[in-house]
Amino acid sequence: MNNLSRLIVNGGVLSPAELKYICESAESLGFNSISFGSRQDILFSKEIDASRVEEFDNLKIIQPGSHDGENIISSYVSTDIFQTTSWLTSGRYLYVLEQFREQPKLKVNITDPKQRLVPLFTGHINFIASENEDYWYLYVRLPEWKQIEMYPALIYSWDIEKIVVAIEGILQEEPDSIEMVFELVNDAVDTENRTVDKPLNVPFHPFPYYEGMNRIGQDKYWLGLYWRNNKYDLEFLKAMCDLCSDDKIGKISITPWKSFIIKGIPNHSKLIWEKFLGKNGINVRHSMLELNWHLPVADKEALGLKKYLVNNFDKNDISTYGLTFGITNHFRKPYYFTSIVIEINAKPEDLKDVEIRDTYNLLYAKNFDPNTREYILYAQDVDKANLSNLLMELSQLYFDELGTEKDAKNNAKALKDTVEEIVYQCTDCLTVYNHIYGDVTQDIAPNTSFENLPKTYICSLCEASKSSFEKKVLVKEV
User: Fold this and answer.
1) What is the tally of structural domains in the chain?
2) Fewer Cβ atoms within 10 Å of its own Cβ: the N or the C terminal residue of the chain?
3) 388 lies in which domain range?
4) Taking the model in full, what pTM does it have?
């Protein structure tokens, strides 16, 4: 990434007209193709002359090695085509993204926990939709932190930009805990926070297929396009943008998998699109063996290793449906979001001038779910010749375990007893006060009973008085 110029595309969302303008600008700079990055940005294969950048006022170009800004990633791309939280529509994403007046310096993720295409926890500041409409969990992992921490309040949709600016503003204080972040942010800005009434639940779903022409409802289609070498021809992209305009398609979405998705192709244009792809020699429906890979950008060694492994999978008729793979170099700060990770080991310092074979480590996510953020070492210091067999073993392990955790939970659930839990619910807006969590918005510590709340206590959402709360009995399994 330090050798590439990046173009910011906030949320991975842009209009056909914007993409066409980008293509025309890239052509004027001497490029004949562009690439897509894992943070849903656009990459150029070489540094752009700084004096030329000023010619394009509408483009936010980040030069190699610069820390002038990070792309916001979002799961907007998943709406309407994959499972999503009911209230989180395309329009909600766009309203949230439009709040940002300045480019964040930190990595920001805005995602839906019910989809798998876009990672939830790979940013420094991660907003994850809750079941409460327009409220988000917030998980923070500042650059020097070793682990991610949950912010002790739900964030209102229209406060997201304020929270990001506030967190960036307190970095000079070097906060070392989520409690300190919470305190400093509350001192800096007024927000409409809401009490966290239950922990985040991230359901497991097999990784989706995101390529080819697929139906939406009865009369529309979505198209996912992927190129093996991640070099998208500018002439093709410009013609595609014109076709989008003809069909009144408003948005094009970049995925974190170096591909893009077009939603809303009308039924009557499906044949026109298929003809267009065929005439341009565009192949779709690539093998699942090769599709779900994350590689370092413009890394020929990693690309060669992927081709070698995919070829071995193909020869052995191996299924990798639902699995994702990542290849990472030893010098990258690791923060994975694939099911299986292949780490290329660093050469020993005392042998760096001697030509020796590369060795690799294999890791896999707990339950093969990257959202667990827990990785298990499967094999260490492996030669390239042994990688394929070990990856096939992991693939078999995945299918052996697939669904067993859910079955175990269901079996355990059938044996559980039930207990009654007392909570208090606001009769005006139905917000629940649970003494287990307290109420961080009003400095009420966890395990504070409702009876011990001050008489001045008000609902954290609608500000109704304490007398507006009614006792409720929840039946819970234990």
Assistant:
1) 4
2) C
3) 289-403
4) 0.82
